[in-house]
């Protein structure tokens, strides 16, 4: 079932929302120079509820924080499901005692994001149901994204470092920079068991045997099982803490951060341009989309135009990337339900060939580092077009059809997927789910249509959406999106114009004017957003990644409750997480 | 559709793939083990370039390390430095090494894995030559920025990806001697990039010649009208140009020293 978004009502423009909100809450709301609503702390919940219910901002895109010299700015981005740009909302928190009311009661999708802000900045959210660290470990001391926090082997707040040039003296960082050699500082009185005890009572995630409660109705014992981090179903190092009643899941808490490297701190040390290769390492199955999102955000701040040819190249590579990513996602899901590696191998054949195209164009199969602010790094090689045309007109359509008849309608696939892990549409919106998870719940929301970037508005294609909200719907969305992507690539290849591939001069020292921007792209796994703040210097002042995989996991617990253990594996597979992006 | 037919249809596809591995995959090995497959040369338009063969039904197994799949020209792995092996050209005085120690690669490097020491003359002034050049390949993320932003085409990305070692510290720090490769090597692995470079040099020289010719013609014209001997005017012009160049070189050297804060 395919729907287009044209039937939906038009959304309010961000400026209209700002004006109306200010009129309604004259004492609590002001509008700052960047068009963001600055909301008084005490009135946050009232304003947010009004924004959600009366101004249509039902979807919380992004929630993060900026460490200013005199305050913390907690920044929310919320948008309407009818399309249009998100509205930024800012709440200031004291430097000494940062407390902000929790928005979880308004947007359930704020849950993990508020925990991340607490983890990274130490801003507490009053009324949050489970305010614990999420990416760092429980005994960790300090808040890494604060400006005064220094990492292990800290050398300087900003790259480039003088020790490389002109000083030129080679040394191994871990030997010479001993001041921060071991950064594992424990808080006073820390004991490992103490951390477990200190967990709030309202979570069932208590690891002590004495706390295991008896379920009164059937008299069976509840059991806590740690699935992962070393478990093949978790697609990496990811842990699910399950509370089981027999074989039925009573509660589930995702535990993550095993691959956390503080991508955002690295990004704030780097030059603007030098972040580009790092974005490849987020969702390494969808590298082109990651680069595009970052390039888009910085281009927005700099106000540069991208030439037509570069836009076409971007769209061709990004959609080919989406096809290979969905091949990967669909067949890894099959792996999870027991079709061990046979469909996977058929999909990898196609993926290899798409990666060959990426390699010949960008120089690397996964870590492409291909986009630049204002265009792309190199033009398409001579051999690209014949190969790409063969692929999108001949080979890939056949491969997708084969995958379709191989899997769709198979009774085993049906039995495992239909009616499992249902996420109703309202919950999907509330939990800020995005990508195939959202569209599989019957919400035809796609950033490429809702807030078109690049030249997506020039092509004829449809948003794929299925109303069931189960694993099967997500699978069908991915399958349908591969076909839609093929349609886009075919049109883009046909229309590919000549001309330059870079707007403006190619430079490595980029001056980004003071300001801030939230840019987003529709990545295969959902809405990938970048929130950047510039203070006019050579490095970003704040660099935040809105990770679709991370936020889609917010709904995992809700989806799995009441299902069997074996189904949690399938449900996790249907979200299709990539840990490089979950943990950042 | 009767129950179970979906599974049967799927199994038929599996069966076809199974037979394909014997009929297509095994018969179409790229070439005998140890050879670089013939498709390495087939980079002209219309033919399939390096990589997996799309015209085949599946992917074949290449017998690595005896047999290696060729990599495309833009493939990049760990940078290397270039020197002119013929002893000709502007950089001949510095052993032909193209690097001028301007430091752009070290500054643009995202993980900061390049260390450069700039050479100094007898007078203590910096000279456009790198006396030391380290790349820590264990930190390098092979992004290719150094090669992309080098204004002198002095650093390029390599195609060699076999760097295994028994130790992960010292043997991964390459010094200038390990990094240096002749230009011929670069021309062999990057034919298109090298052609661009040659063409740019040719154009630059042509423009220079044209400018000189224009200047000479102008001088001649000026001499004609002012009555000064054309040869004399040419000599004066050359002297002035020499002075200008010297001043420029001094200024550049000072500027580089002053840029130290980077």
User: Percentage of helical residues of chain B?
Assistant: 40-55%
Largest sheet of chain B: 3 strands, mixed
Poorly predicted residue ranges of chain B: 30-52, 258-262
CATH topology of the largest domain in chain B: Alpha-Beta Plaits
Number of strands of chain B: 6
Count of all domains of chain A: 3
Roughly what is the average pLDDT of chain A, rounded to an integer? 85
User: What's the quaternary structure here?
Assistant: heterodimer
Which two chains touch over the largest interface?
A-B, 57 and 60 residues
Low-confidence runs of at least 5 consecutive residues of chain A: 1-9, 197-212
Give me the secondary-structure topology:
The complex is a heterodimer of chains A (584) and B (262).
Chain A: E1 2-3, H1 14-24, E2 29-31, E3 37-39, H2 44-53, E4 59-67, E5 72-79, E6 87-93, E7 99-101, H3 110-121, E8 124-126, H4 163-167, H5 173-176, H6 192-197, E9 222-227, E10 230-231, E11 236-237, E12 239-245, E13 248-255, H7 263-269, H8 276-279, H9 287-302, H10 308-336, H11 342-362, E14 371-372, E15 375-376, H12 384-407, H13 411-417, H14 425-430, H15 436-439, H16 447-450, E16 463-464, H17 471-495, E17 515-523, E18 526-534, E19 542-546, H18 548-552, H19 556-560, H20 565-575, H21 579-583
Helix pairs in contact in A: 9-10, 10-11, 10-17, 10-20, 11-12, 12-17, 17-20
Chain B: H1 5-25, E1 77-83, H2 104-108, E2 114-120, E3 126-136, H3 145-149, E4 155-158, E5 173-174, H4 176-179, E6 180-182, H5 183-189, H6 191-226, H7 230-258
Parallel strand pairs in B: 1-6
Antiparallel strand pairs in B: 1-4, 2-3, 3-5
Helix pairs in contact in B: 5-6, 6-7
